[in-house]
Write a structure and sequence with these properties.
The chain has nine helices and twelve strands. The protein is of the alpha+beta class. The protein has one domain. Strands 1, 2, 3, 4, 7, 8, 9, 10, 11 and 12 form a ten-stranded antiparallel beta sheet that branches. Strands 5-6 form a two-stranded antiparallel ribbon. Strand 5 and strand 6 form a beta hairpin. Helix 8 crosses helix 9. It is globular. The protein starts with a strand and ends in a 6-residue tail after the last helix. The relative contact order is 0.15.
Length: about 240
Amino acid sequence: MTTVALAMAPSAFAGPRQSAYERALVEIEQKTGLKTIEIPDTQGAYLGKTHRGYEVIYTAKAGNVWGRYAARLTAGEIGRETGGLLGFITGHHEALGDQVVGSPFDRLLSSAIGQPLSVTMILKHGRPGPARLDVLSGYSVIKPEEKLPEQAKVGFKAGSIYSADTGFAARVAANSALMKRLKSLRGEYIRVDGDVVTLLWAGSETDYSGMISDHGGYYKMLNAMMDDLADIADAIPSGQ
């Protein structure tokens, strides 16, 4: 599996091919603080860091990487590692049993299969029982099965904020810096659930390049995404 992070990093296009991977990892760490982490028994490359006190996991893939068998194995292990939303959608949830096959993830996966690029960023907020909140673009190919009440609009490409908790949504919408950054997203699905805030994205090279451009560059986009998830986590009501 090839990470989009490495494919898009400027250093990956220069110099001997055999050293592009190492150069890209160094540059990504220098610009974002993200560095290689291991998630046992999974396929693919993962980067992580502690961002503003929150643990962040990031992966991005290019090409035909969402074969069902490999994706199920990888997702199952990530679900065990992270719990929360990823635990739920991979089937590792007491109400669903311990099966990836037939889980909510299987239905979400069908939306991502065939997409040239996919991005996942997970932030562990560590707060028990927050109300679910979605930031969902109308152009996202990955959508929740149940749409929550719309509480605030973000932008034409970035979509709207959805939640049954009006207070939580209002705190997110009141963060002007966050709302400005969110407008640079397109086709995304951000979700607060369990003990994580997750950003899911899948789409074409054109859409991905456009999102990078809207952020002012690749590394600025990664840093902005981490700040987006951290700001949303900060807005989770106290006591939840």
